Amino acid sequence: MKKMLSLMLALSMVLALAACGSSGGGSTPSGGTTTPSNSGSPSTSQPQQMPSSGGALRLALSTNDGSTKDDRVPTPWLNHNMATNLMWRSLLIADSTLTKTSPDLAEKVEISDDGLTYTITLKEGLKWSDGEALTVDDVLWSIDAVMAATNKNSIYSAAFGKITSKSAEGNVITLTLDAPYASMLDILAQFSILPKHALENADPATIDGDDFWKNPVTSGYYMMDEMSVGNYFTLKLNPNYEGTAPKIEKVTVSFVTDFLTAAQAGSADYLYGNAADLVSGMESLSNYQSIPVDVLFYKYFQFNMKGVDGNENEAMQNVEVRRALIKAIDRATLAAFYPTANVLNSGVPNSHEAYNGFDYAYDPEQAKADLVAAGYDMSRTLRICYYNNDQTSQDLISMVVYYLEQAGLKVEATLSNDGTTDLFTTRNYDMGFKGKSSFSMEEWYSEYMSTDALFANIFGGDTAFDAAIAKLASSTTDADKNAALKELQALEQEKVYKVPMFTVGNYVFLSSNVTLPAGVEFCNPLYTCDVDYANWTLS
What we know:
Radius of gyration: 23 Å
CATH class of the largest domain: Alpha Beta
CATH architecture of the largest domain: Roll
Strand content: 15-25%
Number of domains: 3
Largest sheet: 6 strands, mixed
Number of helices: 18
CATH superfamily of the largest domain: Dipeptide-binding Protein, Domain 3
Structural class: alpha+beta
Number of strands: 21
């Protein structure tokens, strides 16, 4: 694999640099362009300004994908991380498989026999970190607000979009659905409840940018202590947390552009990732243990058929063009960039009993012929946008550019400073490279829903998938689920809105400063689950 990666890295060095938000201003070198903008370069403010441990658990937040700003705490409604998991709670908490739940803020959840009514009893006496009562109003408001939020995990839209009515009496909430949703409990275990009293005047569409996140009110183990803008923030014990207080009294969270650099500097106790350079680098450090975690993590390209500001992108609307572009990329070779990658041919892993994906072999000459036959203008620039600034992602994109050029294409690859905005709002690209961390295949396919606020902007709000997605979401038997998955795969191959690349496992990296209680198992690090955190200790 080292020889393969060396070849890939050598090829990537012949490709120039570009910045994502560019709409064509300035000159562009001939051939493909790739790599980061200035904002993605390593920061001189980290990690040397990180405080020493001093009895604090040291966490790190990556700023290299645009999802985290260095002047605020990230919203848990997009992706979870260890820091936000320690600050906010959900109605339920999941186990390491993300399929079994137990009470958290909720005392109990009851489901009607028809699967349409959820009766949620909230615990009595709950309080926010500022002393205000945490009530059913916070739950109802949070559901409404996340549905209106622009930047959020699509699982919430898919699940809460099924709710036709909701009400509360005392500490009991009643949710009524229009159809059964098999994953609802699992999603309630991922949905962080936020404080209505602190956020009700914020614009839900842009809630992730509100000043609230600079000094947030919390419900979990910890509350905000200090914010050092651009460097780190610290957390202290939340005196209003009603459960067992953690043994670790303080947490320091640094903003970093590179996890490996932070680990090498000894400024992080918990990290995660799956890129080859990170995994090999972490495994070379004797003071860290590498813990593999079996997760559903998909890497893929999405085609932008709507173009900039919703204008029609005619080149990408031709399905034969989209099929040809899949043939132009050597996905099997690119999988070598990730230690645990398996080539993905649909939204269903190849090993699954319901698998029925496409089989497009790498064939650049055939891809070129198919593009010409489809009427594609070979003189136009094919624009790729990506948002991860780690070395592995940069090298992979460089190789994709190289492959596409071998099929006769002009290619420009650019790095986003804000992945969500550039991929779903600005949309100045043809193919966007992204990852999707899922706890079920239902979540992967929910992106095709016509009602998905983000993906409808690039796929055009096609309703073709809706019925099959609803069938999958309501399936309670393996037979029904497999039938729905086969139907969805057939639609995937008909529409070709995405280029599935590979599934990738993940790793949690834990420093020797941390001692875990017996029996702890980690889940997908982009979600939240019960890791018995209250009993973690530091040496």
